[in-house]
Design goal:
With 269 residues, the protein is α+β, with helices and mostly antiparallel strands. It contains five helices and six strands, in the order ββββββααααα. The protein has a six-stranded mixed sheet with strand order 4-3-2-1-6-5, with no helix packed on it.
Length: 269
């Protein structure tokens, strides 16, 4: 769908864990008309401008994808591709040792890319840790507020109906935060498991040992299994077929990856 045909102004915005963020106030565009950022009215927090590539537009809601998630997805895909390329390179050398001199140049290129990704990984892990710390502090504040409301109910400062309303709202917020923390842990585990173990990462002076090549043939690079923003029609509680707007970027998830249950939370929240 052309960006000019996207109708989002006035729509509610939620993060992908179901928490409400505000409403779309307007957009800024490039000179060719493509949407650059989307302004979200966040009430007392004021206006937040979000890059358009971090949003998924649906008929009844606009979904916000956190930056850490997009960065982690991109890095994971690049690491997996680099592992596959290094594995393929070592297999080629094992089959034809005469190509070793040519392979050394390519090998240095892949190793340089891997080292660069290791630096990116450190930065992303730091962002994930900061986000976990932030969520933990928010959870503590919510629990204190809930406990104080319980004390007020017991001392007849507020009615039990009011306390139940407070509890329902805080339970929903905590539920959203638990979803995000669980996904962050999943991403961190995925990153930690991505190593060059089992891949002969150095081009030897002689042909690669046959046993090493066989080991690489048996090693399978894990496919990305992070929940993906939807890139095709999906089922929801409100419609049988929901058309989802995607963005033409190099980081667009594969269409064959099954989307997680986070999309359904947009409609059930």
């Amino acid at each position: 769908m052309p960006q000019n045909d996207i109708v989002m102004i006035g729509k509610p915005v939620k993060d992908m864990y179901g928490a409400s963020m505000g409403k779309v106030l307007g957009t800024t565009t490039e000179i060719d008309g493509t949407i650059q950022t989307v302004g979200i009215n966040c009430g007392s927090e004021g206006l937040k401008e979000i890059p358009f590539q971090q949003l998924v537009v649906q008929p009844d809601v606009v979904i916000f994808i956190p930056e850490w998630r997009l960065d982690a997805q991109k890095m994971i895909r690049e690491k997996e591709l680099t592992i596959r390329k290094l594995t393929a390179l070592m297999q080629i050398i094992s089959e034809n040792s005469n190509m070793q001199s040519d392979a050394e140049i390519i090998h240095e290129k892949y190793k340089s890319k891997w080292n660069s990704l290791q630096e990116t990984e450190f930065t992303i892990k730091s962002k994930l840790e900061d986000r976990i710390t932030e969520i933990t502090k928010q959870e503590q504040s919510i629990k204190i507020l809930l406990f104080d409301a319980k004390v007020q109910a017991k001392s007849n400062e507020i009615t039990h109906d009011t306390f139940n309303s407070v509890q329902n709202e805080t339970d929903e917020l905590l539920h959203h935060m638990q979803h995000e923390k669980a996904e962050i842990e999943k991403v961190r585990e995925k990153i930690d498991n991505m190593t060059l173990d089992g891949v002969c990462s150095d081009v030897p002076d002689q042909a690669v040992d046959t046993s090493c090549a066989k080991q690489m043939e048996n090693d399978e690079v894990p496919e990305p299994n992070l929940p993906e923003p939807p890139t095709m029609e999906v089922n929801s509680d409100h419609s049988n077929q929901t058309s989802v707007v995607t963005h033409d970027t190099n980081d667009t998830p594969d269409e064959n990856v099954e989307s997680s249950d986070w999309l359904n939370r947009m409609h059930s929240s």
